[in-house]
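Hi support team,

I'm opening this ticket because the web form for multi-chain structure prediction keeps timing out on my end. I have pasted the exact lines I submitted so you can reproduce it. The total is 697 residues across two entries, so I didn't expect it to be a heavy job. Is there a limit I'm missing, or should I split the entries? Thanks in advance, R.K.
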Amino acid sequence: MRRRSAAALLALTVLAGCGGGRAPRDEPSEPAALLPAAQEIPGWSLVEGPTAFAPETLYEHLDGGAERYLAHGFRELAHARYCLGADPPACVGLDVFDMGGELGAFGIYRAGRPPAAEPRSWGAEGYRSGTFAAAWKGAVYVHGEADDERPELTAMLERLVADVGARVPGAAALPAVLEPLPGGGLVPLSERFVPGDLLGHSFLPGGVLADYELDGLRSELFFSDLGGEGDAAAALAWLRAHLEAVGELDSERPPLGDEAFRFRAPGLGAGTALRVGRWVAGIHGELEADAREAVLADLVAALGPD
Amino acid sequence: MGGSIDRRAFLKLGAASAGAAIGCGGAAGPRDAPPGGMRYRPLGATGLRVSEVAFGAHGVDNAGVMAAALEAGVTTFCTSGGYLDGREETALGEAIARIGVPRERLVLMTGADLRGNETVDSWLRDLDASLRRLRTDVLDIYYNAMVQTPAQVRSEVLLEAFDRARAAGKVRHLGVSGHHGGLQECLEAALECGAYEVFFTKYDFVSYPDQDQLLRRAAARGIGTMVFKTTAGNRQREIKDLEAGGLSFRQATIRWALSNPDVASVAVTMTSFDRVSEAVAAVGASLSAAEVAMLRRYAGEMYHRYCRFCATCEGSCPHHVAVAEVMRYQMYFAHYGREKEAMRLYGRLPSTATAAPCRACAGHCDDACPFGRAVREGLVAAHEQLSFARA
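Hello R.K., no limit was hit. The queue was backed up. Here is the completed structure from your submission:
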């Protein structure tokens, strides 16, 4: 799909109305239909867009960032810019993404969330950080940026992102793929979904990352679904070979099955990796072996052999 | 439109860029060396030596991949404080700390775009925040990012703030970065300004035909150049079987950029171990004939998508459409991220000069175009994109 007619999108937006939280829950979540209508906000006008971008034109809007969105399943983006006054205008840009599914929306949201961002109750989750704000729910990821931190701009920024988050239908729950993560020591909001090349490896198709902190030491837990035991065994062998090449393997084996091994590698620290059923999993960082393997054992129990 | 173009037409694609650079760069040059090992070049007169491939940290927070890049000899790391409120700088700073690489081994650069409401004090606070996130006391290069106008390049606030920061030992060199339609003007302004020591710029074999000459003049003044976006739009997926049997398209574009002795380094986003290997392997010997042919093919496929704004076809138009102006505005809209400006400019055209009548026209302009472009089709699409402002 090429860029849609801006006039047609504007008509769609106006028809959809602004509504905020008043929108019916079964409202379609096409990005353009989720853009708030500027005429319902006194003093503000729509000065750019709505402009739609498809996968083949996304780079025109995001340049180098487009590839990351495409990897997360991006389908369509509606961009608009709302301005207060005219000379000079003070504006807020808003991007509403259809990421193709909740994993894509969650993944791109968490990947970009600044660690010190202030949480907001928008959609499934949201944040504001300086002149940026974002939220996700269902397949929708929304991101806004104000020109500066003037109160009237940041208030509009928050309103726009909250408005989009409220208009997306469906439940506000985290993706089910995160459920196996152990609760003890889990650093809040540290769970991420990576769509491919988990830990930077092409032989791992993607998966989940989460941070664990115990007694002031932090490590990163990971797991990836290879789809079958044979493929998982092969991927673990590749991982082992890589870690042996760039770092070193520990001759002492962890009590977590025949294929489990301990390693130390540049950038990763000390870690343990294993296979359980069709999954490859592991943990690396600062935690001592006993502590990190206790977290890993809880994950193994939750993943199960199947 | 087909992808084949004759030799004469190809050379017109961009005499200083695509034609000359691909043609000359393909020949064996003085830099021939076995591929695969990292090499280093001086960055203008800064005294810095940068790796020919630099680590673009955009969207990367994997310390293992960064460690692999370091192991492969990559010493130059580029990030930005303007992206996601410093999220990238934080990730890069954490990774460098985790790897434990000595700071003096690295060339570290970051930057941010000016919003127009900065003060010297606010800029200095932002710089301190970048230093904290990157866990360092000093930056090697700070770049004025995403410049679109010469006024942004000459910002008195930025220049004064930078001088203060340098006097305080927080930053060593000032750079300028951009990839918008006004890039050439901005780089010219940076040349005249005298404060900039580094260009960090988009550079490819299709766009900006005057850029080689500009970089030559910059080098003569001691300005070092690092580049990015060498893939000319990254649209290789739209071209079937674009391969040369050796380097990938992406690798060939890196090697093409490095064939210019005025380019010190190519910044590449390295999201995986494979990307590190791919980028590092692009360093070394000159382009092969097959790789040159691959870039020529890409340029050829793009050839018919670009209007040169020569206005030759306008004489044949029964409706007096201002073809060159319309297509220039469409280029601003579609390829330079200047949608608002493009629509505003289009809105100012006299109604008789717009492309409104083109949809129902027979397309005499198609026959008149000396480059064989489907002009009418382009005008119809341009009118659809640009006419919102007139509605």
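A quick check on our side: The longest strand of chain B covers residues 171-178. Let us know if the file doesn't open in your viewer.
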